[in-house]
From TrEMBL:
It is found in: Plastid, Chloroplast. The keyword Hydrolase applies. Residues 93-227 form the Acyl-ACP thioesterase N-terminal hotdog domain. This is Acyl-[acyl-carrier-protein] hydrolase. GO terms for cellular component: chloroplast. CDD domains: 4HBT. Keywords: Chloroplast, Fatty acid biosynthesis, Fatty acid metabolism, Hydrolase, Lipid biosynthesis, Lipid metabolism, Plastid, Transit peptide. GO terms for molecular function: acyl carrier activity; fatty acyl-[ACP] hydrolase activity. PANTHER family: ACYL-[ACYL-CARRIER-PROTEIN] HYDROLASE (PTHR31727:SF10), OLEOYL-ACYL CARRIER PROTEIN THIOESTERASE 1, CHLOROPLASTIC (PTHR31727). It comes from the Eukaryota. Plays an essential role in chain termination during de novo fatty acid synthesis.
């Protein structure tokens, strides 16, 4: 005799009533017996019109073991219960609900810039996943794989108003649009599910590269036909004239020539992931301190050490408690491989003279160490004085250096309280 049982299933939902947005879960109760075939959540979610979950039994016979394990959809699906994802914007945008994990925050329980960049990358891939266009490449469509093409980012801009806290539930929206004849633009918005306030926004431009020749390529018509139905004429950041980033030279104030890619820095396209570039930009040291700095030191130190290199190991707690990175612009020039030797250069906008010793200089200009990547709270209003820096990553060559990426960062004072919508 078959045993009876019931199983509740919860699916995320968002709806509006009298102008207010509400978030909740839809509860579905399944009653069955032990002989009943129970469908997976993915099959339940994809049962609607215009969506399909996974491959049919006939198609499975033609799939590799890797594709079966990945469960990549072969057709567009509207809901992904495994990733808490939904198709929005009239069927072409994507929204994912995420929780800020403990390993994504810094010492002040706020998400790091690196964590936000990783979330941008993950939601972009999940968007392509749900479209049914994803092949086995790193975000590549079926047409791209047939033409040996991969995506590479050429420019990215991020603006952060507030940093999410540990355990906070976030909604991340992402969508794509056209960028010229052969490029694609991808935008993101991150907001708090509890307050509805937008925390961060970002925009990026992507072009295609031939995976074998490592040269940029035009967009084939079959690829254009795949992705153009997903384009939206909407921008997360309105930038009439893109900010021009000047090229730094060896006279830059901060230099780190000791960077070496590891195999763990490579992504599925076998080049260094762009999130790693950002961390390298902020891992710099001052080349030398002029004699005026020596007179201000309150302790004894070997003169040869102070005049050759002075490593910035930490940031004063006073600065970290009151300031945070508010924006970054990146212009990518070429890819970087595991055998390249990388140099990081940086120049502050204002080369202020030292007035109150080394600590004063650290608080004003020397804010460029690995600790900067660790989230430290909420940013202040736009009228607060900000600090700007120009960055450059380049490959050190025997005869000449080749640019990897140029960057600009902005820093502002943070708020001491959590913002809420009115």
């Amino acid at each position: 005799m078959a045993a009876a049982f019931s199983c509740p299933v919860f699916l995320p939902s968002t709806f509006s009533y009298n102008g207010n947005r509400y978030h909740g879960r839809i509860k579905i109760k399944i009653n069955a017996t032990s002989s009943t075939k129970v469908k997976t959540l993915n099959e339940i979610a994809g049962a609607g019109k215009g969506s399909s979950s996974l491959a049919t039994s006939t198609e499975i016979g033609h799939l590799s073991q890797e594709q079966i394990r990945q469960r990549i959809p072969t057709k567009k699906q509207l809901v992904d219960p495994y990733r808490q994802g939904l198709i929005i914007e009239r069927g072409v945008g994507y929204r994912q609900t995420v929780v800020v994990r403990s390993y994504e925050v810094g010492p002040y329980k706020t998400a790091t810039l690196e964590s936000l960049l990783n979330l941008f990358q993950e939601t972009a891939l999940n968007h392509v996943w749900m479209s049914g266009l994803l092949s086995n490449g790193f975000g590549a469509t079926h047409g791209m794989v047939r033409n040996n093409l991969i995506w590479v980012v050429s420019r990215m801009q991020v603006q952060v108003d507030h940093y999410p806290i540990w355990g906070e539930v976030l909604e991340i929206d992402t969508w794509v649009g056209a960028s010229g004849k052969n490029g694609m633009r991808r935008d993101w918005l991150i907001r708090s599910q509890a307050t509805g306030i937008t925390y961060a926004r970002a925009t990026s431009t992507w072009v295609m590269m031939n995976e074998k020749t490592r040269r940029l390529s035009k967009m084939p018509e079959e690829v254009r036909d795949e992705i153009s139905p997903w384009f939206i004429d909407k921008r997360a950041i309105n930038e009439d004239v893109p900010e021009k980033i000047v090229k730094l030279d060896d006279n830059a104030r901060y230099v780190n020539s000791d960077l070496k890619p590891k195999r763990s820095d490579l992504d599925m396209n076998h080049h260094v992931n762009n999130v790693k570039y950002v961390r390298w930009m902020l891992e710099v040291k001052i080349k030398a301190l002029p004699s005026i700095y020596i007179n201000s030191l309150k302790f004894h130190i070997n003169l040869k050490i102070i005049t050759t290199s002075f490593f910035l190991q930490t940031i004063p707690d006073k600065f970290l408690e009151s300031h945070q990175l508010s924006g970054i612009v990146l212009e990518y020039r070429r890819e970087c491989g595991s055998s390249d030797r990388v140099q990081s250069l940086c120049q502050p906008d204002e080369d202020e003279t030292l007035t109150n010793g080394v600590e004063q200089s650290l608080l004003k200009n020397m804010i460029l160490t690995p600790g900067i990547m660790e989230g430290n709270g909420y940013l202040g209003p736009l009228d607060v004085k900000s600090y700007g820096y120009t960055h450059l990553l380049q490959i050190k060559g025997d005869s000449k250096n080749e640019e990897i990426v140029r960057g600009r960062t902005r820093w502002r004072k943070k708020l001491s309280t959590l913002p809420y919508s009115s």
